[in-house]
Design a protein that fits this description.
This protein has 132 residues and is α/β, with parallel strands linked by helices. 35% of the residues lie in helices and 16% in strands.
Amino acid sequence: MSHVVKAALLGLGEVGVKFAEHFLEKSQEEGEEGVHVEIVAVAHRNLESPVALGFSHSKVPVFKDAMEVVTLGAKVDIIFDLTGDPDLRKKLRVALQESHNRHTVIAPEVVAHLLWNFFGEGELPSSGQTGY
């Protein structure tokens, strides 16, 4: 089996929910054509939202504070920050550096746009503050 990419999704709003749906759908496809991605953590400020509860029931860690994802270390390959908060992205980068995590990457905004295009969802909703 191919390498499984372990992803964390931060922000389960309009964009985050679509990312989760597409990742879950693609990862459940049969055979080698399925995308080998596993959602290993999510963060959302509303732990009682249906999507957060769904992940929790599926035994995926759900954090209220997105910064807690950093504590998972190399168990996360890629963080998709879908919060639209450039300050959070900066804090995440600093926290990864301070924890000496040289494994986990934060997907730049352009990667989110690329995947959104592959998902066929049209124009990616944006806060206008992309930041890196």
